[in-house]
Amino acid sequence: RQAVLKISTGSKELDKLIGGGIQTMSITEAFGEFRTGKTQLSHTLCVTCQMPVEEGGANSKVALIDTENTFRPDRLRAIATRFNMDPEEVLNNVLYAKAFNTDQQLDLITALAAKFSEEPGAYRLIIIDSIINLFRTDFSGRGELGERQQKLNTMMSRLMKVAEEFNVAIFITNQMMSDPSGGLTFVADPKKPVGGHVLAHASTTRLYLRKGRDNQRVAKLYDSPDMPEAEATYAITEGGIDD
Ligand code: GTP
Ligand code: MG
Description:
Blueprint: E1 6-7, H1 12-17, E2 22-23, E3 26-32, H2 38-48, E4 61-66, H3 73-82, H4 87-92, E5 94-98, H5 102-118, E6 123-129, H6 133-138, H7 145-166, E7 169-174, H8 196-202, E8 205-211, E9 216-221, E10 231-237, E11 240-242
Parallel strand pairs: 3-7, 3-8, 4-5, 4-6, 6-7
Antiparallel strand pairs: 1-2, 8-9, 9-10, 10-11
Residues 32, 34-40, 70, 215, 236-238 line the site of guanosine-5'-triphosphate.
């Protein structure tokens, strides 16, 4: 069995909170209101995963599935510069795809599995920003919730299988019930993440992000079975997620 790798978030405090970084063979989920740094964290991980293992990276390429159209190569350039890495080289190691519906999103995961078997060990990270957006638009009707959850479950199982088979970390972002950007939702509890039991069970580590003062943000471990519900403060900077 291969050793688990830990990829730095860019913030030492945040890394500490989750046991050293986001882990391979595991699914890490970050949810929170808009502007809490979910996309900035995704961007930062695209860079940090390429760093040497001794420096908190996984010495690997990364695959990113964008469902919200918020990927910005220029942000990656700035983050690469912070870590003294060549921006264009960093961008060359990011396999990027946009998904427009949940069928495409599912197909992309299958395509990634095929890619990973062609290039064993080259990829240690898959990012999906966000996992839920297209589900909220594809299944916006009240009677479709069961169907939505079933498909979400299929997707999460497939992700976990890829994570274990190829020793890859899965990082997904999620929205809050109160965020209406993804279509109609019944607001049962606005402070809860979307995805119900399916995401709750599928995600190994769940992070609840909230706003602090200025560029400060706070991450809290959510519903962790084996870790205390501790918090970590991090900052969003030009160079990505930092302390
Ligand atoms: P939604 O996707 O809308 O739910 O939000 P999110 O959680 O993905 O937020 P995102 O990661 O996009 O964070 C946006 C925040 O990052 C905003 O407060 C921006 O001001 C901040 N931000 C983005 N780029 C920079 C930058 O270059 N420098 C600094 N200091 N802040 C930045
Ligand atoms: Mg975002």
